[in-house]
């Protein structure tokens, strides 16, 4: 592997981001890692190596702050090769009960933060005519589950953003992958994600059952974040990485099932679909 590459990883103080940063540093890469709390990041990583590790305190919803972190990375490492938009969190609950400010907050973190990072790093990658962007989505962005409507909407937006971004950047030699995992043991189910778990509305049994299933499975998810991190490093060395990469058996099964259902429905309603055009 080309360990001279410089990685820029957001949301690096915990979960998958932290594991990835540790794995990258152990493999000899240079890493700029962002967090809202740089001291927490340093303590979590446990490696203070100014030659290869640059911890950055960054507000990902502040373009000036992101720009400053990019400039710091360039000053220390001279380039950026791989961008991992990992910052994000989950949220479950009925749509009626989730407060407007919480909906806006999760879109800010899960969608607009990634867009902001791309906006600020793209000029550099275009000038290099090389680079790789990994956006961490979720299988929920394609196959949602009851109670995850808002979260799924953020990840669907990130997937669509990634798809068109890949088309826009192809001519510059810049690749894009949206990684869409199922359940991984990363501490994903946080206080924020569980704030609306207990619905007070009559009915919505599917939502309540799904929330209980996720809570009961917390800490025993089948996905291994160490293996996921290794896959990311392999992707960065590929000359043709995939646009979509679903991680985990559950993700594969859910996507395969939905694709079949969609194909069947598309053909069933084909006559109606094409009937909407002007008749020649």
From TrEMBL:
The keyword Transcription does not apply. Keywords: Oxidoreductase. One of its GO terms (molecular function) is oxidoreductase activity. The keyword Oxidoreductase applies. Pfam families: adh_short. Belongs to the short-chain dehydrogenases/reductases (SDR) family. This is Short-chain dehydrogenase/reductase. It comes from Niastella yeongjuensis.
